[in-house]
Amino acid sequence: QVQLVESGGGLVQAGGSLRLSCAAPTYTFGGYTISWFRRAPGKEREFVAGIAWSGIITFGPDSVKGRFTISRDNSKSTVYLQITSLKPEDTAVYYCAAKVPGGSYNYWGQGTQVTVSS
Question: What confidence tens digit (pLDDT) does each residue in 14-55 have?
């Protein structure tokens, strides 16, 4: 069982930055793809970005490209999501999830709230 713990969310003004962390306190990320999703109020969950064990990165909507950076530190079993130039529409609960290549996201964190004020 892979337990994922997100942190780093908070209230920030538009234009600000945050770094979210996704850690696996009791497991290593060996071989797993780790991705970030978000769910904004009244909207469906949305894929934001993912990083494979190999380091290959994929991004979701065009609205995050150039502002979101995903990285991983396998020695710390932690994946980061750096968000810059935050916009009110980035307000959401951000979740990280893990899967093996070709599999489904079976492991999810509890989420961290990001609120961007205008």
Answer: 999 999 999 987 777 788 999 999 999 999 999 999 999 889
DSSP the chain: ----EEE--EEEETT--EEEEEE-TTS--TT-EEEEEEE-TTS--EEEEEE-TT--EEE-SGGGTTTEEEEEEGGGTEEEEEE-S--GGG-EEEEEEEE-TTS---EE---EEEEEE-
- One-letter amino acid at 3 equals Q
Any residues with CB less than 8 A from the CB of 95 and at least 6 apart, and which? 6, 36, 37, 38, 39, 45, 108, 109, 110, 111, 112
Average pLDDT over residues 79-101: 96
Query: What residues form DSSP beta bridges with 68?
Result: 83
**In the predicted structure, residue 107 carries a pLDDT above the cut 80:** yes
Model confidence over 1-10: pLDDT tens digits? Answer: 788 999 999 9
